[in-house]
Write a structure and sequence with these properties.
This protein is mainly alpha-helical. It contains 15 helices and 5 strands. The N terminus is likely disordered.
Length: about 350
């Protein structure tokens, strides 16, 4: 580079030399052929109609299977049906009934509070442990880390139904192996039928869910930690920073955007949870609705069960409330958390 001019020739797609680009200070075009000015170049650009052709199938499928069902469900929540099945518009009556009626309110607020506790357990156990495991696995000196990574991620690939039945058998006080396993360490006196006690059932299921899905945050954190340049860590180490300081002052700061994404995924997944509770505790989310989540309440309300007929309009109301709660959290993340977090390119 001489006098601010980059004398390296550029080549077109045919491999022919077409000219020389100048540096940022003297940006322009000189050489064998002259590029048109930016204004003229923009005027010559036309809307590429073929883009619509490529996007149309994806938009059509997404509209049919996502947008239309969502709007249909939202609209159904504003109607009620009589015994003959005739629907009539009721405005927000279903929402008021869901939150204040003596029959519906205890089930709704109880399921919502259970969902909050379900999310808290995942946030306090799953994500920190996932970050810890990722920090250990990213260590190049750890032998067998590929094997450990595969083993830790393996439960995520299993069906929730299989996991639910497996843990139901493991924790059974009649034929389960949990009590026997605890006896090997002299802890058999602490064994309880956790899934059958109101006080422990939800926490037990939360930990089972953590065990199954801990591989997802672990892999996301692992990918983020791998992308941190070694030069930054080495420079901090040379300056006398301890491993603890390097992690919290450098690594954790750089993966904060991933921490936010993991929190959003955890919230969305927890507030859509249904299958684990249904598999292990049944449609009534026993004992005594102590493990009832919004997803289970929606299923029980919309489709009904042995003791209750299905109510599609109230089921749609529950689904709408779930959608609004998740939407509120995502908007909170987008406009509060994401704007405060800085992404670094290195």
């Amino acid at each position: 580079m001489i006098d601010g001019i980059n004398h390296n020739p550029s080549f077109n797609t045919a491999g022919r030399k077409v000219g020389f680009f100048t540096s940022d200070k003297t940006r322009g075009y000189s050489g064998m052929s002259k590029a048109p000015p930016n204004s003229q170049y923009k005027q010559k650009q036309k809307f590429r109609t073929y883009i619509l052709v490529f996007l149309a199938p994806a938009c059509l499928v997404y509209t049919m299977f996502m947008i239309y069902p969502l709007l249909s469900s939202l609209g159904l929540s504003f109607f009620t049906a009589d015994k003959a099945g005739n629907e009539s518009f009721t405005g927000f009556a279903n929402f008021i009934k869901l939150m204040t009626d003596d029959l519906w309110a205890p089930r709704f607020w109880g399921a919502l509070w259970n969902n909050v506790k379900f999310f808290i357990v995942h946030s306090l156990v799953q994500n920190p442990v996932g970050l810890l495991l990722a920090s250990l696995l990213v260590n190049q000196s750890l032998k067998g880390r590929t094997t450990f990574r595969t083993i830790l991620f393996l439960p995520t690939t299993l069906s929730v139904v299989i996991v639910g039945f497996a843990w139901q058998l493991i924790l059974s006080p009649l034929w389960g192996v949990a009590e026997t396993g605890m006896a090997l360490f002299g802890l058999e006196k602490y064994f309880l039928p956790w899934l059958g006690l109101e006080k422990y059932a939800l926490t037990t299921l939360s930990l089972v869910s953590v065990w199954q899905f801990i591989g997802i945050p672990m892999m996301l954190f692992y990918t983020g930690l791998l992308g941190i340049p070694h030069e930054l860590v080495e420079a901090a180490t040379v300056d006398g920073a301890s491993g603890w300081t390097v992690f919290w002052r450098i690594k954790f700061i750089l993966i904060l955007p991933i921490v936010g994404i993991v929190s959003v995924l955890t919230f969305v997944g927890n507030f859509n949870a249904f299958d684990l509770v249904y598999t292990t505790q049944g449609v009534l989310a026993g004992p005594d609705y102590s493990t009832d989540l919004l997803g289970n309440l929606f299923y029980r309300t919309f489709f009904g069960h042995q003791l209750q007929l299905g109510n599609p309009t109230m089921g749609a109301t529950v689904a709408t409330m779930m959608f609004l709660i998740i939407l509120a959290f995502v908007l909170l993340y987008t406009y509060v958390w994401q704007r405060r977090v800085t992404s670094y390119e290195y």
